[in-house]
């Protein structure tokens, strides 16, 4: 169906010791820089006394209101730009195998810079996972991974890495049948606004920890599951589930959601993104040929259409039905 993408190559080489060493290096560097910043921040605060505390409160309020990003419950603020840029720089020049191209790393980082600290949901664990975690310092970053081995291996070794394994039932070879079924049930089981916990749509992911469905996600990066052969699960469920999350519940209520789809040059990613994330929501001049960037407006939407073209189609279908009557 399609050639092997960066995330898919990682799944095919799970035992590669070189990859693990590279991941350790990137995460260790990210942790070191974050430690330096945190230590410096608290040392300065302790020396400056109550006047500094008032200034910190004003700075925190400014960060929350000016950038549109939500600050986590811990009250942490953005990473300083020099630290942020250093992390991106060293990740982009890394010789680690099975990683994103430099241009994609920088494109994802640019969106994350605007939103962090925020609630970030990432489909797939990979070479860049420690980078996304570090860049979203002060926010919540959750990874959803098809390979239970990665979750069990990486999470205990990296403090703050929150990851859950997901069992997918779809296959790339069936993606057109699955898409046709979702279209037919767009006003019912596969509707855009719904509670995914109780969804019966075949593309819906409804077995995550319950609290994840109540999180107001600011940004979603779709870099999994694998889709490099007909028997791979493909990214149909992750794209559909993201589209519903962005239009439902807490995520829709808080405002627009940035959605990034990696390996966008492939058929499944393009077709499903067009169907559920919609061309009208794609950000012109953002992303790369292999990274699609969409912004889904907040406030929900029609219950029977993801995109405006589908709304027109639904209206025409309803008009024909009324005329026959």
UniProtKB/TrEMBL annotation:
The chain crosses the membrane at residues 21-38. Its main location: Golgi. Signal peptide: none annotated. It is found in: Golgi apparatus membrane. Keywords: Membrane, Transmembrane, Transmembrane helix. It comes from the Eukaryota. One of its GO terms (cellular component) is Golgi membrane. It holds the Pfam family IRX15_IRX15L_GXM. Residues 305-325 are annotated as: Disordered. GO terms for biological process: xylan biosynthetic process. It is a single-pass membrane protein. NCBIfam families: A_thal_3515. This is Protein IRX15-LIKE-like. It comes from Panicum miliaceum (Proso millet). The lineage of its organism: Eukaryota, Viridiplantae, Streptophyta, Embryophyta, Tracheophyta.
């Amino acid at each position: 169906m399609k050639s092997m993408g960066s995330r898919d190559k990682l799944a095919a080489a799970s035992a590669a010791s070189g990859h693990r060493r590279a991941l350790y290096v990137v995460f260790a560097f990210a942790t070191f820089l974050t430690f330096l910043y945190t230590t410096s921040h608290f040392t300065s605060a302790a020396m400056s006394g109550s006047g500094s505390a008032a200034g910190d409160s004003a700075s925190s309020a400014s960060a929350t209101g000016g950038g549109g990003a939500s600050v986590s419950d811990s009250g942490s603020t953005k990473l300083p730009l020099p630290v942020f840029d250093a992390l991106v720089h060293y990740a982009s020049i890394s010789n680690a195998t099975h990683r994103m191209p430099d241009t994609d790393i920088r494109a994802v980082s640019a969106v994350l810079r605007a939103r962090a600290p925020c609630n970030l949901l990432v489909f797939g664990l990979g070479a860049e996972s420690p980078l996304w975690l570090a860049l979203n310092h002060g926010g919540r970053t959750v990874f959803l991974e098809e390979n239970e081995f990665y979750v069990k291996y990486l999470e205990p070794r990296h403090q703050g890495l929150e990851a859950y394994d997901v069992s997918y039932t779809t296959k790339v070879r069936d993606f057109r049948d699955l898409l046709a079924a979702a279209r037919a049930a767009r006003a019912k089981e596969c509707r855009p606004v719904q509670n995914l916990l109780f969804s019966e749509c075949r593309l819906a992911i409804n077995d995550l920890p319950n609290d994840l469905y109540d999180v107001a996600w600011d940004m979603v990066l779709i870099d999994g599951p694998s889709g490099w052969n007909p028997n791979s699960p493909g990214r149909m469920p992750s794209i559909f589930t993201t589209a519903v999350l962005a239009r439902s519940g807490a995520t829709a209520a808080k405002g627009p959601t940035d959605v990034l789809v990696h390996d966008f040059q492939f058929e499944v990613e393009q077709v499903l993104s067009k169907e559920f994330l919609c061309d009208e929501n794609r950000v012109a001049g953002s992303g790369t040929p292999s990274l699609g960037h969409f912004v889904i407006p907040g406030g929900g939407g029609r219950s029977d259409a993801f995109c405006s073209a589908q709304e027109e189609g639904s209206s025409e279908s309803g008009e024909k039905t009324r005329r026959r009557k």
